[in-house]
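General statements about sequence and structure are easier to judge against a single worked case. In the encoding step, the backbone of a single protein was reduced to a row of integers, each denoting a local shape. The record that follows shows the chain in one-letter code together with its fold in token form.
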Amino acid sequence: MEHEKEEYLEEPVSPVGQYFNSSSLCLYIIAVLEFEVPIDDLQALVLLKDVFLPISPRFSSIMVQEKNEDKRWKKVDVNLKDHMKTPIFSKGKSLEFYDKNFHDYLSTIAIEPLPQGKPLWEIHIVNYPTKTSLGNIIFKLHHALGDGYSLMGALLSCLQRADNPSLPLSFPSLKPSKSESSNTSFWRKISCTMSSVFNTASDFGWSVLKSSFIDDDKTPIRSGGEGADFQPISISSIEFSIDHIKDIKSKLGVTLNDVVTGVVFYGTRLYMQEKDSKSNISNSTALVLMNTRNIEGYRSIDDMLNTKKSKGPWGNRISFLHVPIPKLNETRISNPLGFIHDTHNIINRKKQSLALALTGTLLDIEGKFRGQEAVAKHIRKTITMSSTVVTNLVGPVQQMSLDEHPVKGLYFTLAGGPESLVISIMSYMGKLRVTLKTERDFIDEQRLKSCMQNAFEMIFKEAMKIDCKTN
């Protein structure tokens, strides 16, 4: 029996996995595939059995804990029908009816707890048309299974290129420009090193204070309560053209990330000002979740699971940064490009800092001395003291398909946390999808989406004027 116990309980749950499945925090990743054809003939059970389950042993395991030991993964038999849900809506209704029913269903299941006695995932197949698709598949995956990088890699391993399944999917390059990394003088390197030391000390110290003592102001995106874990939520998204984002980037001489972050922050501030004119200069912070793997692009599942050699291992390899949301004064309202430059300067400064790595190290040390539950409480407090959580993933350039069903759209969000607003960003097929998870009855979801759209249009319009002035 002792040998059997060791065999079943050989893989420990990572510290971050334990933080995310505790009495203080229970976080989920929600991913949605939108299809351009009906999916009523999809061989879902076969795909789950033959494709999804073999991806990782964690999809066939539960968390267990022996007395005072850390939690471990235990292999169990999986009844696939327990994990596959197919909702039934009324027949013969309008597109608007099914669209509303889908989004209500998505928002409801996102915060429902998964049973701990079964593997921590569900797949929901919605065979009804919406305004954006002819069918949807919702993946609900506990964050303890892995972070967005791991789970997106798992999802992509189930999909093929729609145009040619024999070819691999490709992704936008994440490499920095060579001008930033080469031909740098000795004194320039010394200056950068000194800046890095100063910025690291400043950012890390600020992060510790923000996580423990300094609350953001109460605003239309932050109620200041104990947390919105169990409050009703809404999930919706808005699309932007990546080509237009590249146009803004080239006009302003900044990065794509600067433009996207600036648009999101500017739209958030516009919404805050509409709801409360004083909140445009409030102290508001975005908690930005970052992948700490030093890699470019996704690795294969085999490579992820080969932890001894993998550069992009499976699991939760994330940390967070506190990024102040620039304030919206009268000048920035009339000159939105200045807001992009403010965001660019903030992000550039954060790049010259090792605070991200130090934050992860601090959590590890705290876990060893105070235990995983104490760290989970610390992370929860960090989230509630901030205004919003921001996260992003890179999706493929080409169209994907699942069992010859072309995927029209792809988006994701986080659920289960105490924050009132999560902003998730994902690229796919030349489009950038910004998904908003909002606390219902506190944040006006439609108004926030409108402000995001207005922010993008204002920034794009002003950026396009630059040529007119120089020609």
In short: Residues 1-9, 176-183 have pLDDT under 50 and may be disordered. The first helix runs from residue 2 to 8.
